[in-house]
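Re-run requested by the PI after the first attempt was lost when the workstation crashed. Everything re-entered from the original request form. Ligand of interest: flavin mononucleotide.
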Amino acid sequence: MTADNKTEKLQGRALFEAIGKPKTIVAPMVDQSELAWRILSRRYGAELCYTPMFHARLFANEPKYRDSMWSELDGDKEKDRPLIVQFCANDADYLLKAARFVEDKCDAVDLNLGCPQGIAKKGNYGAFLMDDWELVHKLIRNLHDNLKCPVTAKIRVYDDWEKSLEYAKLVLDAGAQFITIHGRTRDMKGQATGLANWDLLRYLRDNLPEDQVFFANGNILYPSDLQRCTDAVKCDAVMSAEGNLYNPAVFWTKTDDIDMQFRRVDKMLREYFEIVKEVPGEASRHAMKSHFFKLLHAFLNVHTELRPVIGKTSVHSSFDEWEKIVVRVEEIVEEIYQKDNISEIDVVTTGEVQSWGGSYKTVPFWRCQPYFRTVNGEKQNTRVLHVAATEKVEKTSKKEVKQDAKVQTEESSTKRKPSEELEGERKKVDIEKENVTI
Ligand SMILES: Cc1cc2nc3c(=O)[nH]c(=O)nc-3n(C[C@H](O)[C@H](O)[C@H](O)COP(=O)(O)O)c2cc1C
């Protein structure tokens, strides 16, 4: 690739327009934003999807790893575009080598600069590259100069607004064509997740070149939050991770129809399951258990008898076994719809506006909805949970922690073991299961 080739690549806003000016984005999610999930999310309003983060060196060097993450249908022009493929890396050569495997099969390659987990610290990638700007610049520039497709980046912020701005400018100067900013710092993870800072995102947006394509990430619970975020940040598009996992229709804004925005879990589960059966590759099979748990989260709080049934499944379970679970969910929800008072109970209500600017909704347990946990006896979402993080963590009762741990154990028993490092990635996903953000 030469400098001439570089100029042929679509850049910035031209690239954004070429991929249809997406407004809604499925976030990169390890083991969770795989092909089947992307297909489902696109049907419910996602206009751009990111793959899960792939480990650049493994992707470059280990065909087994690559095959487990990427199938012939990933990046398919009809079914899986626009698509951005994300890598984590700390070596420019490996990153380029990995990216070359997908440069013809996606719209851009993204560098993960946001993962704050211990595994990223150990491997020196993700948010830990925030300490080595020179390396960040080199990684992005090498792709910008040598890859056929454009490069983008997803970053976290610093507490210091000016430093965040300088960092964003460096990432863009290196050649990133889109920037996604997750409005949390590297320390805002796990129990200290807290609110993403939209004011800071707005500050960055306002101080970057006007034409810069800017994606905001953080705090999306409901479809109605998308416009709130766009208005607050003045961003081009909004990315959601966790909101999308619990409700793939979080991006549905074409109508206010609750049958779309908060779809019945039996229907969503069936649709997802039928997609998994159709798509090739291992990744979608491996993600099933976790998706079942998340899609059914509220439902399983009532129908606890299904929890161990899903818990016992593994990647080796036959589709017939999964089918039984899907059918059981369908039967239970159908029974609910036989109730005489169904029209009275099948409603979504919106509560008062909260201090963080949005409102909680009450959604029937048989409909997809965001995940809340209880802290200090209060219904809370992990995204808005820790406005006063430390104080709340200290007060969280042991019982609540235990309950969360139990859910985590049941959801965690799906794993692949292609290599030690890959196993590390899986562990990270297991940590993620209860809403630790990357
Ligand atoms: C299960 C899960 C997996 C994630 N994996 C990745 C990843 O592979 N790459 C990345 O950049 N961020 C990853 N993240 C972080 C999200 O992309 C996003 O930045 C973060 O969750 C905040 O968005 P949210 O408030 O919509 O959840 C992950 C988050 C979750 C919940």
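Saved to the shared folder this time. The two ends are 32 Å apart (CA to CA).
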